[in-house]
Write a structure and sequence with these properties.
- The protein is built from 2 helices and 5 strands, in the order ββββααβ.
- By secondary structure, it is an alpha+beta fold.
- It has a 5-stranded antiparallel beta sheet with strand order 1-2-3-4-5, with no helix packed on it.
- A hairpin with an 8-residue loop joins β1 (5-6) and β2.
- The relative contact order is 0.22.
């Protein structure tokens, strides 16, 4: 089960989660869409969740270059 963490410092992301065993970052967008980004070691998760990181910009510059897919399809 995914344990979502609310994201309050972003207008583009409302929640995120991480599986260290699978090295997957999960992102929930304001419209309810949930996305999975694979092959993300812990340092990528830590950078993504850092308070000074723009979540939308980081998704575009880093996470979109990883294998990714929409959840629930």
């Amino acid at each position: 089960m995914i344990e979502w963490i609310p994201v309050t410092d972003s207008s583009r992301v409302i929640a995120a989660a991480y599986s260290p065993q699978l090295e997957q970052i999960y992102v929930r967008f304001p419209d309810g869409t949930e996305w999975c980004y694979e092959e993300c070691p812990g340092h990528i998760w830590e950078t993504f969740m850092a308070p000074n990181t723009s979540k939308g910009a980081y998704i575009h510059s880093e996470l979109d270059h990883h294998v990714n897919h929409r959840l629930g399809i």
